[in-house]
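Handoff note, outgoing to incoming analyst
You'll be picking up this chain. Sequence as last confirmed:
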Amino acid sequence: MTTASKPVETATKAKPALRLVSTQGMNRDEWLSVRRQGIGSSDAAAAVGLNPYKSALELWLEKTGQDAELPKPDPDDETSPMYWGTLLEPIVAAHYTKRTGNRVRRVNAVLQHHQHPWMLANLDREVVGSGDVQILECKTAGMNGAKLWREGVPEYVQIQVQHQLAVTGKQAADVAALICGNELKVYRINRDEELIERLIAREAEFWSLVESGTAPAADGSESAGHALRALWPKDAGTTLDFSGDLEHNGLFSHYLDARLALEGAEQREAELKQRIQQLMGDASKAVFEQGEVSWKRSQDGQAVDTARLLKDRPASLEAYVVKRAGSRRFTVSARP
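Most recent structure output, in case you need it:
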């Protein structure tokens, strides 16, 4: 799905959003409960498989109430990007006003599409008194997240904003992104009717899976892996015989081919890495036309000799032992 924003050629008479519920005085659990009733703007990219942080399968677990075993973000965790994004949102909004002169205000409500009740939206701010732009989306990005902003607004954020424009019927939004804490970038995203039409169709497909209880296919992401472990944390000790199923056997065959290709690629990578190391010898860095390589010795570290400690002071070690929950291991045996 392409998300390139383009100007609106003619003013589209889109209907405004409905106010589903006020968020004033609403606690986080109540807000999350309302969000389960539909696809919010921050859910949109995950629903169509284009969120780099969350898979459609993980989102499906949340919307169907099967997410009890999923790891939950702690809103008070000061190491979390979500914590700092929430804390810095009013600062980003205030600096946006200083930069552009556009006044903004909060929208204390969950908004709902007039035609598709499962399309919901929470706006960071609405822009007041401007004929050019009506919505402000505030973002923060640290050193890792900043990589996604090098060429402009990331695709998943563009989808989030087009979802907001679809729900509200508005024509344009500004995205104010605070990069690495010291650089504010402002991007304009105009309503794209063709993209919105495709987005609504794809989101409708996802919501039909929620309503029918049919899980979307896993996509190979870390998020999908978390979702599968949460969905089936324990095995039942049973055996399924797929040997007579052509489609399932084809899936397994493709998996074996992929494993062989990966093993070959890893072996090739190791060989090339070692050949570069041979070229470098005791040099710390090597520069090439397409980049550079660093090969430096790390500082000496310290570790506890648990075997010796267990032998000399077994009672001391046992006092600090914590139990870790077991997990399912996926092992493969291929027949010759």
